[in-house]
Amino acid sequence: MADTFGLFGSVFCDFGKNFTVIDATGESPVNGIVADIDEEGLVSALDETRHGLEDGDYVTFSEVEGLEGLNGCEPRKVTVKGPYTFSIGDVSGLGQYRRGGLYQQVKMPKFVDFKGITAALKDPEFVISDFAKFDRPQQLHIGFNALHSFALTHGRLPRPLNEEDALVILNSAKGFAQAEGIEVEFDDKLLKELSYQATGDLSPMAAFFGGLTAQEVIKAVSGKFHPVKQFMYFDSLESLPAGSARSEESCKPTGSRYDGQIAVFGREFQEKIANIRQFLVGAGAIGCEMLKNWAMIGLGTGPNGQITVTDMDQIEKSNLNRQFLFRPKDVGQMKSECAAGAVQAMNPDLVGHIISLKDRVGPDTEHIFNEDFWNKLDGVTNALDNVEARTYVDRRCVFFHKPLLESGTLGTKGNTQVVLPMLTESYSSSQDPPEQSFPMCTLRSFPNKIEHTIAWARELFESSFVKPAETANLYLTQPNYLETTLKQGGNEKATLETLVDFLKNERALTFEDCVEWGRMLFEKQYNNAIQQLLYNFPKDAVSSTGTPFWSGPKRAPDPLKFDPDNKTHFSFIEAATNLHAFNYNINVKGKTRQDYLQALDSMIVPDFSPDSNVKIQADDKDPVSCTQCWSNWS
Description:
With 634 residues, this protein is an alpha/beta fold. The chain folds into 4 domains: 2-19 and 113-237, Ubiquitin-activating enzyme E1, inactive adenylation domain, subdomain 2 (Rossmann fold, 3-Layer(aba) Sandwich); 40-106, Ubiquitin-activating enzyme E1, FCCH domain (Elongation Factor Tu (Ef-tu), domain 3), CATH 2.40.30.180; 276-429, Rossmann fold (3-Layer(aba) Sandwich), CATH 3.40.50; 440-631, Orthogonal Bundle (Arc Repressor Mutant, subunit A), CATH 1.10.10.2660. It has helices spanning 117-122, 136-154, 163-180, 188-196, 203-222, 259-265, 267-274, 285-297, 335-346, 371-375, 387-400, 440-445, 450-477, 481-487, 492-505, 511-536, 567-583, 593-601, 626-631, and strands spanning 2-5, 8-12, 19-21, 31-37, 42-45, 58-62, 76-77, 79-82, 85-87, 102-106, 110-112, 126-127, 231-235, 277-281, 306-310, 354-357, 379-382, 404-410, 413-419. Helix 2 packs across helix 4 and helix 8 (285-297) packs parallel to helix 9. The longest helix has 28 residues, at 450-477. It is globular, with a radius of gyration of 33 Å. The model is unreliable at 625-634 (pLDDT under 50).
């Protein structure tokens, strides 16, 4: 159940008794490597790696030596002792920890009891929406009840900015609290403002609470994510403009479609936003939502108002599930044009006040988005999907002293940033932390996380299908490429070897050549490399301290013997063949499994013998470089 009154809103959930929450957070289960488990059940993560667990989480274990009773055990409840340690309770009788082990978080169902609306009204539970307003939920709970009582008694809601009605609401709330024995310190201004705005109807508030309510419905039927238990009250009184006067007269309805806003902000404010000149960069998921809200509030609909929206992308079918201004008939059309047309249909007042462009905003379009364009703007809103474009628009806004609204989403998460000239920091003033990187020796020899294998696969793709082709094309198209390359320090030898291999030694002329190349790539990566690794570090190797080399994060691999009947093996050959053939413009369309098998049968894969001269870096502190490790034999 949801309700909004101007800048105030609430939602109430009742999912019954013993409601099951399957996954309270929606986050991927955490896992890690065990460094030690003491006699009291204190688990230490390897190399002071943060375990990422919270009190009440559950974990299970595998590959633990000594405490084998933990392997595959029933999930054990976690008590966090620190960022690198957690307790799993009593482990007596399970043995003595020796080494190794992995822990894996297990998402356990959580059972939640809800009260019915009658009981919940008298004994409410609140979700705090803003910890800076910790005292407001109880006041608003009583205030909303007073509003509903007023509507039942008078057959209407309190009049906008009417002091007489506001005093009735205030006294009613105080009387209710006294009658029920509720100790609460009322903010008279807060409850009066609730009365002033009772007839207010704001599109952004309706969008927010509509989305929130829809999300709670999905939680109710899926059991995923923890529901609101049970009331959530929200207010956005910060949105009241300080520069626009409000009075009972200025907030009276005028018979226009904007009366719901005028009741909250007044006619002066409505006239101001109607004559705003706003620039929207991007017409995707966020852009559609912004345009819809602007159309509903009448932004840019006045004689001097204008909205400019630009997006260089066309609508794809996959956009339709979240970019709600588009319909199947729009697929293939420009996003900016279709979005502009859709919001003009929503609010005809926008006709003639919205301009749609299909140009990227960047240094190469400064003849379009020139000084005159920026100077005429009142504000800018980013609805972009990449950091480079965001930072460029931010720099333009800083230069021309324009307010910027920045936002972004990632799954169920989102963020906003309001940038005001000479008042707040700009978008570019702060940066996200750099993406996590991994030592190449870890990726190539000692992966222990799925992230390692993904990074390794990306590097293999780049080195096999992207960089060689780019280097060859530069050589073939730039007359002085070799001279220029030889003058540059560092990579001359590697560049020349790439050219010789790609254009001569390994140059593919036929489909069969591509299959052979793919087969040799499989052999090199999944057999030869692993044989060499186990030659340098046998499975029974020990370190200088006497501990097994293959322990902790180091997991001993096994060489793969190619099997064309293995679906994964054969898929690798198919993918490698197709990509290699694409680089050389060789047509493989229509080739069957039998064609691949014939090409594989006709080739000879040479036997591999490990080389005693090859050095492999054991960890990132080892002075031997990873490039040296692998260049001799891979």
